[in-house]
Amino acid sequence: MNVTKKVGRPKTFDRDDALTKAIGVFWKQGYEGASMKLLTDKMGINSPSLYAEFGDKHGLYLEAINSYATNDACTPLVALETEPDIHCAVRAFFEAVIDYSTQHASGAKGCFLVSCVATSAGHVDGTAELLRDAITSTDKRIKTRLDHEVRTGSLPQNFPSADRAKLMFDLRQGMVFRARAGFTDEVLAGDIDKYVGSVLAHRES
After folding, report:
1. Calpha distance 76→163 (Å, rounded)
2. String of DSSP letters for 155-178
3. What are the pLDDT digits (tens) for 112-147?
4. Going by C-beta distance under 8 Å and a sequence separation of 6 or more, which residues neighbour residue 132?
5. What is the DSSP string of 100-119?
6. Do residues 152 and 86 make contact, with C-beta atoms less than 8 angstroms apart?
7. Are 140 and 129 in contact (CB under 8 A)?
């Protein structure tokens, strides 16, 4: 006897694309301002599909944060880690910050973590932990790259990698804040040389 196996209904939407669109809604409207109707309209899915895939708005929000932290926010880190020369690598980091702060697919400016997630960390469960994880992970990856340059001799043995990693993160945050306020790519890029110099400057022992 032939047994016909029931096949689940296939997804009719691209999950990554839907998350990118959800990020744009949360980014522009904030967590509270992002209604389910606005989210489903922008994501191109219906409410049952959203609930089936993400649970609820809160679950979607946490998924959106994870997606952004894993993809968009990591672009500057990838640039830092893949450019062999450390001066060029730090420059590439800041150039990538400008690019994702002003050219995001959602059309939003700045940084989703700064503009939206940070403001909801005190009252939306789970966001503060994700934000701390994103900051800690960023600091660690920058420090790892700087430590590598210390080991290879490109930076001196007394180079303060941990402090400069935090400085790079803080400078990044300043850039995305300015991007959010509407400063142009050209204006933001005008500070890169100064930032590279500040990050890599060292005192002779």
Report:
1. 18
2. S-TT--HHHHHHHHHHHHHHHHHH
3. 887 788 888 888 999 999 889 888 989 999 999 999
4. none
5. HHH--TT---S-HIIIIIHH
6. no
7. no
Nearest by Cα to 95 from 75, 120, 67, 116: 75
Collapsed DSSP state (helix, strand, coil) of residue 196: helix
Q: Which residue in this structure is represented by tokens 């490109």?
A: 154
The two structure tokens encoding residue 183: 């400063």
pLDDT given at position 196? 97
What pTM was estimated for this model as a whole?
0.79
- Are 143 and 162 a contacting pair, CB within 8 Å? yes
Which two structure tokens, joined as six digits, stand for 83?
């450019």
CA-CA distance, 136 to 130, in Å (whole number)? Answer: 10
Contact of 19 with 64, CB cutoff 8 Å: yes
Question: Tens digits of per-residue pLDDT, 44-77?
Answer: 999 999 999 999 999 999 999 988 888 776 788 9
How many contiguous H segments (helices) and E segments (strands) does the chain have? 12, 0
For residue 1, count CB atoms less than 10 angstroms from its CB and return exposed for 0-12, middle for 13-18, buried for 19 or more.
exposed
Cα 49 off chain centre by: 26
